[in-house]
Write a structure and sequence with these properties.
The strands form 3 sheets. The protein has a 7-stranded mixed sheet, sandwiched between helices. Strands 7-6-8 form a 3-stranded parallel sheet, with helices on both faces. The longest helix is centred in the middle third of the chain and has 20 residues. About 45% of the residues lie in helices and about 20% in strands. By secondary structure, the chain is α/β, with parallel strands linked by helices. Bound molecules: beta-D-galactopyranose (GAL).
Length: about 350
């Protein structure tokens, strides 16, 4: 009987005890954070935010950056699995290549969160980012506010970054009607390897040579590559004359905006995305339910009909920023420092110090 009672009541409790990882001071939740690179301004910033938030919640965060090397990133993730992480947050260099690492972690029961950039696997626990198609629409609109006719050059992001595909989708939604009408002619359309500013400079130099500087607007996909392109445009006396879009509201990007070179950027408040990632990671580790996720198919997230399955997602809003609202949106919100933006603007032409 006792045996039977034990079987009836204790066994399931024991099983639960075994299933429920006993997190506490002696066994803090271990979060792995795998980062594509540190070349882009935002990634070290978000690593620092996530490290602090994890510590505040008694969790341990181990992070590594892969220097734009997809194979190294997968090796680093495998290493994190061996180190016994309970959950992994991934900023993928290559959304396709990272899928095998997510599936390997899944086989070990380790949930993975794709952060900002999609990993093309339906084994993800969640994909969290900003509305990346709206980023593209906002960029195209920001340029069209200045020029809506003529020769346009398109600078896409890194071809292995699924976000670059979604930015371009949004850009073309806005530009295509004007292209069809013949108002706009796309004279160059290039994608910038690794989102590297130096690559963007070279690409823009070649475009300006090929087009004899007859470029009326540039739809670039982030601040880093836009500022790279502006180097080439500056050398031809076109900086400030030819509108160009960016993204990320970086310090350098916003400074270039108040100096009338970069036309606009897209503000994505990463101070909202990073806490969401840590909260979700801790819940997934504790096998607690996560609210507010909505399923999207891999096909609609990648525009690739050959991909099946879906992923639970959450997307945050984005804000277009130009010279008129950079102070309100980016400086007064504390996203960037006043001095970083206005240091080369004469004192009497600056807005009030924060
Ligand atoms: C994208 C990201 C952008 C931009 C870019 C370069 O995936 O969404 O914010 O920074 O990468 O790293």
């Amino acid at each position: 009987m006792k045996g039977k009672l034990f079987g009836l009541f204790m066994a399931p409790l024991m099983a639960a005890a075994i299933a429920m990882p006993a997190f506490g001071a002696d066994k803090p939740i271990k979060i792995g954070l795998s980062i594509s690179d540190f070349e882009t301004e935002r990634w070290p910033v978000e690593e620092a935010i996530m490290k602090k938030l994890a510590a505040d919640q008694g969790a341990e965060l181990i992070s590594q950056q892969a220097n734009h090397d997809p194979k190294l990133q997968n090796d680093q993730i495998q290493n994190m699995i061996l180190q016994g992480v309970d959950v992994i947050i991934i900023i993928a260099e290559d959304g396709a290549a990272a899928a095998s690492a997510v599936e390997e972690a899944g086989r070990d029961g380790i949930p993975c969160i794709a952060y900002d950039r999609l990993v093309k696997s339906d084994k993800l626990a969640a994909y969290i980012s900003f509305d990346n198609v709206e980023v593209g629409r906002t960029q195209a609109r920001g340029v069209l506010d200045k020029v809506n006719k003529g020769n346009f050059a398109l600078l896409g992001g890194s071809p292995t970054d699924n976000n670059a595909i979604l930015f371009r989708k949004g850009q073309m939604e806005v530009l295509q009607p004007l292209i069809d009408k013949g108002d706009i002619k796309v004279v160059a359309d290039q994608w910038v390897e690794n989102w590297a500013p130096a690559n963007a400079t070279k690409i823009m130099e070649n475009i300006l040579t090929a087009e004899a500087n007859k470029i009326d607007a540039v739809v670039a996909s982030n601040d880093g590559t836009a500022l790279g392109a502006l180097q080439a445009m500056k050398a031809q006396g076109l900086a400030g004359k030819v509108p160009i879009s960016g993204q990320d509201a970086t310090a350098a990007g916003c400074k270039s905006i108040v100096e009338n070179e970069l036309t606009m950027t897209v503000y994505k408040d990463v101070r909202l995305l990073s806490p969401m990632a840590i909260d979700m990671a801790i819940k997934f580790a504790k096998k607690e339910p996560v609210e507010g996720l909505k399923d999207f198919t891999l096909e609609e997230l990648t525009l690739d009909k050959s991909l099946s399955g879906s992923v639970p997602c959450k997307f945050l809003k984005v804000v277009g920023v130009n010279k008129d609202n950079v102070y309100e949106e980016v400086v007064k919100s504390g996203f960037q420092k006043y001095d970083d933006i206005y240091k080369d603007i004469p004192e009497d032409q600056r807005p009030p110090r924060i």
